[in-house]
């Protein structure tokens, strides 16, 4: 069991983790966070419930420049339910920081209000590939300042047929970025996706859930 305060995390994140009752890191967090905080690309494989959200959520909050009001991180999830969960967890983790704006963009919800929210801006976008691609095509979404991309549950996104959509989205991102890929399984198509999208990734596998 490793305490979070062994990491070079910003103090407001550490004190909020304390408030949330997150005393020690889960195994995937302990394995992944040091590399994530160093800005490395990471492929992490671990079961559901192992704390993957904080493994990338703390990484993106740590590197966020709150005073620079533009989209700096993009998190792609397979479904609206998962995107809502991830956005909720990032908001909880961000409580110690002031005015971090997290916006969800998912299908099955009206388009207009999302476009309006985008006009007001955000630091972090969490959403499903189809809807994010729609907003990109309509010119509602500017991703030129994104320096961190997260593919959460990447195996499920590929199972759902999002491969071409993921490629289309990534084409709109700066090449100089950090990319983190999380997956419960590691089939061949994940290997080829990561070969296309990640650079010299560190590969981390955690077998047990806790
Ligand atoms: P995964 O994405 O791997 O399925 P989650 O990120 O959703 O897992 O985390 C599962 C649960 O564990 C969540 O309720 C989360 O708040 C909690 N959790 C995550 N990390 C910690 C930690 N270090 N200490 C205590 N609880 C944690
Ligand atoms: Mg998860």
UniProtKB/TrEMBL annotation:
<feature type="domain" description="DEAD-box RNA helicase Q">
    <location>
        <begin position="2"/>
        <end position="30"/>
    </location>
</feature>
<feature type="domain" description="Helicase ATP-binding">
    <location>
        <begin position="33"/>
        <end position="204"/>
    </location>
</feature>
<feature type="short sequence motif" description="Q motif">
    <location>
        <begin position="2"/>
        <end position="30"/>
    </location>
</feature>
<protein>
    <recommendedName>
        <fullName>DEAD-box ATP-dependent RNA helicase RhpA</fullName>
    </recommendedName>
</protein>
<comment type="similarity">
    <text>Belongs to the DEAD box helicase family.</text>
</comment>
